[in-house]
Design goal:
Blueprint: H1 2-14, E1 19-23, H2 29-34, E2 44-49, H3 53-60, H4 64-70, H5 75-88, E3 93-99, E4 114-121, E5 126-132, H6 137-157
Parallel strand pairs: 1-2, 1-3
Antiparallel strand pairs: 3-4, 4-5
Helix pairs in contact: 1-6
């Protein structure tokens, strides 16, 4: 993952882009990985850890009815979280994650390992990808962080 982080951060710096994050199931792991690299203030603005629905609503303006209708782990909420990050920061790129890392909390409709990643550019559409990761809680969270780095790279490479 270190090599991927180096590639992502180099691309962000080269293109003078700032990233901000909204994390739920990863609890700040994306921000921690981004700030593992010295000089990360050149490309990482910061992030929100919004584990509770209350904070998703209060900090990121995720509509409460959306949380009730679709649940916190949903494409709609991932999209709203990413939009909230872009609205609340000066970042050029937003990444959001919401999912079920386990070992509890899964259901038939939303099994452990289900993660939605929202990503997009300021002023552009927000895309959401659905992932079904395998393994225990740590594995699901690590796979989520790696997937977010790949989404960021894909976004930045086309600019």
């Amino acid at each position: 993952m270190l090599e991927l982080l180096e590639t992502v951060s180099a691309q962000l710096v080269q293109k003078k882009l700032m990233l901000a994050t909204a994390e739920s199931c990863t609890g700040g792991m994306i921000g921690a990985v981004m700030t593992d690299r010295p000089g990360s203030s050149a490309f990482y603005a910061g992030g929100f850890i919004t584990y509770s629905n209350d904070l998703k609503t209060r900090l990121l303006d995720v509509p409460e009815p959306m949380l009730t209708q679709y649940g916190a782990v949903s494409a709609a909420v991932a999209q709203a979280m990413a939009q909230g990050v872009l609205a609340k920061t000066n970042a050029d790129i937003a990444i959001s994650v919401t999912g079920i890392a386990g070992p509890d909390g899964g259901s038939t409709d939303k099994p452990v390992g289900l993660v939605y990643i929202g990503y997009g550019l300021k002023g552009g559409p927000i895309s959401v990808s659905k992932h079904n990761f395998d393994g225990d809680r740590g594995a699901v969270r690590r796979q989520t962080v790696e997937a977010t780095l790949r989404h960021i790279l894909k976004l930045v490479e086309v600019l």
